[in-house]
Specification:
alpha+beta, RmlC-like_jellyroll, RmlC_Cupin_sf, binds zinc ion, about 35% helix, 7 helices, Jelly Rolls, ChrR family anti-sigma-E factor, 3-stranded antiparallel sheet
């Protein structure tokens, strides 16, 4: 399935520059492994970045410039060699395997996760990464309406299985939802398999409404 919702330019450039926190970069690399469109854009960003460095820093020694180029190429290699996300699972044993970039946070398999009940047909696993960014793995039953919520800062989500729709469109496995703080949304999951997605939250979610306020402590953010 070709993704239709992509990383935004800021995320791409920040990733290319190595400026994203590792937790957010892990979610971005999940999207790169699913999306040729964004991989091509990443190549462009890295070429442009390299050209800018050479133009703006002509006094840099060749040694420094080549170290920088190597760093960029290594970053690119890593972006290309990350494990395929759950969407490309072929058999039942693969189905249980956690994408490689998520394993440091969530362990090796989905079946070993300690899902916690969140209400509204949803379960979650929440992990605070080493740089303080919260990673949230969500599993939401089909046909469920989530509380309306906004974001105090950007949130990057990759959909691993199933689908949902909100005011921004229809999101399915392989798609990224790269949201800024302006957006307030209410995802509704599609019929079919449970929707599993993973988010890097730069800052706590902000839920309006009594129901959502009740849920917010559950996130512990
Ligand atoms: Zn993309």
């Amino acid at each position: 399935m070709t993704p239709r919702h992509h990383l935004d330019a800021t995320t791409l450039v920040s990733y290319a520059a190595g400026a994203l926190p590792p937790e957010t970069a892990a979610i971005a690399s999940l999207h790169f492994s699913a999306c040729g469109h964004c991989r091509a854009k990443l190549l462009d960003a890295e070429r442009i970045g390299g050209a800018l460095v050479e133009r703006q820093l002509p006094t840099w020694s060749e040694g420094k410039a080549s170290i920088l180029r190597e760093t960029m190429l290594r970053a690119l290699d890593e972006a290309h060699t990350v494990a395929a996300p759950a969407v490309h699972r072929a058999d039942r044993s693969d189905e249980d395997a956690m994408p490689e970039v998520l394993q440091p946070y969530f362990g090796k398999t989905f079946s070993a996760l300690k899902w916690r009940w969140m209400g509204s047909g949803a379960h979650y696993v929440r992990v605070v990464g080493p740089s303080g960014v919260v990673l949230l793995l969500l599993r939401i039953a089909p046909g469920k309406r989530m509380p309306v919520h906004g974001h105090q800062a950007g949130e990057l989500t990759q959909i691993l299985q199933g689908a949902y729709h909100d005011a921004l469109g229809y999101f399915q496995a392989g798609d990224a939802a790269d949201l800024d703080s302006e957006i307030e949304h209410q995802p509704v999951t599609a019929p079919g398999p449970a929707c599993i997605c993973v988010s890097a939250l730069e800052k706590p979610l902000r839920f309006p409404g009594w129901f959502a306020r009740k849920l917010q402590p559950v996130f512990g953010v």
